[in-house]
Known about the structure:
Elements: H1 2-21, H2 25-51, H3 53-70, H4 75-88
Helix pairs in contact: 1-2
Amino acid sequence: MFIAVGVITLAIATFGFIGTFRESALLINIYCGILTVVFLLEVTATSVGIYHRREVDGILMQTLNNSLQRYPWNSNLQESVDFMQIELECCGVTRYQDWEDVFAVVDLDSGNLQA
C-alpha cells in the first residue's frame, strides 16, 4: 500500500513539474486541483478517524488482550509483543497486571509442594 501511495505521489509531483517546466497554466491549474482533492481526502480521513476513535480503541484493546492470551503458545506473537513493549517502553495492554492472567503464579511457600 505504501508503494502505491508513493507511486501516486510521484506521479502527481511529476505532473506539477511538467506543468511548471512548460509554463502551462492549464497543467498547473489541474495540478492545484489534484492537490486540493488530496487535501480534502486527508481532512475527510482524519475526521472519520476522530469520529470512530472509541470504536477503534475498543477493537484495538480487545485484539491486544486476545494476543496476550495466545502469547505463551505462539512464537511469532511473542516476538511481536516483545518488540512492541521494548520499543514503546511499556508492559501489558494498559498496565503490567495484564500479564497476571496469562501466566499462572506459583506459590512456592505453600506447604503443598512435594519433592
